[in-house]
Design goal:
The protein has helices spanning about 40, 50-55, 60-75, 85-110, 120-140, 160-180, 185-190, 250-255, 260-265, 270-295, 345, 355-360, 370-375, 380-385; strands at about 5-10, 15-20, 25-30, 145-150, 150, 225-230, 235-240, 310-320, 320-330, 335-340. The protein is an alpha+beta fold. The strands form 4 sheets. Strands 1-2-3 form a 3-stranded antiparallel beta sheet, with no helix packed on it. It has a 3-stranded antiparallel beta sheet with strand order 8-9-10. β4 (about 145-150) and β5 (about 150) form a beta hairpin. α5 (about 120-140) packs antiparallel against α6 and α9 (about 260-265) runs antiparallel to α10 (about 270-295). The longest helix has 27 residues, at about 85-110. It is globular and about 60 Å long.
Length: about 375
Amino acid sequence: MKINKKIINKIEGEATLKITGEEKVEFAEIEFWQYHGIENYLKNRNYMDALVVNPRVCGICGHSHLHATAKVIEKVFDAEISRKAEIFRTVTTFLEIIENHIKWFYITIYPSQIKDKEFIFKAVRFSSKISKAIAILAGQFPHNSYIIPGGVTCDPTYMELMRLTDLIKEILDDYLSEIMDESLNSEDLEKFFENLPKDIGKGLNRFLVLGGNEFFKTNGELQKVTEEKNSSLSKNALYNNEFYEVGPLARMIENKDLNIIKIYNEYSDSIYTRMLARVYEPVYLLKNILTLLKEADLCEPSFIKPSVRDGKASVAIEAPRGSLIHEINIVNEKINNYNIIVPTQFNLASSKQKPSPAQAALIGNSVKYIDPIFKCFDICAVCMSH
């Protein structure tokens, strides 16, 4: 049986696909060959160093890694944070998710079907506004350092909060008119599928959300997540010894979002449903950001100093591509062990025994659809090779 190798790039790095089959994909192995060694680099360093190192895992989702790092340290310390600090963390993390989705749509996957550079400029324009919004709370970009154990370093004024609110409203209005409205109408998405079947790329139809909060309902337990080696330098992430899909589609399904459920009932977990959920999620998040900003009480403290103690902890948050897990063991204020499990380890796992979500989505489909099917999971090879 002929095995073809295909290099997939423009996925925050690159991956190798080993495809078995001529016209249709009979089987696919996914390989990541980069290695950063960040977890080993953290060993025996002061726990605060993780706040500087971990955002460097990825140039796109640095907020998410910073947020998860602070939360896992806080869990060890049994630290308290104010509602104000929690709101600001959530706002900036949501803005990062929105910015990622727009860049993914127009820069990563759109060029696989549409050869028009105009859409890249649309992504840049939206990204610029979102970066300005993030900067009001988080400062420098990229690799912000404003989240620390016990809260945040920012202390915005009412004028700054008003400016942020106005900017979010502007981004939401522009998004609804230019990308997708609340009824899931999107000219750009429909244009993408003009010459592409909507029912290809069906995965495992199993969804997992671990980073539950007031906006994302969880349906799993952290202690049931395990890792295993595969044929490359990456690791597979499993839940209850099974592969699950994480990300916007999983979040919208678990949130029982009626708009997405309607599309899901028609197309199941196909490339169309997966992409539509990711393009629709910014609408959901921007509206909730406006709600959060109304709740922010600027009289509350931004930071509550925690008591340092030894211990182990693990936490999950919802990052752009899905559930992100950070685990730490602190001994005498130093990191004895650190482990990071990223969303791509769930979605892009590679196994010869049973397929991962991405493997299942590829198998049985025409080889000419490999690129859009693979990229519809919003792969991050950089995070995968942390």
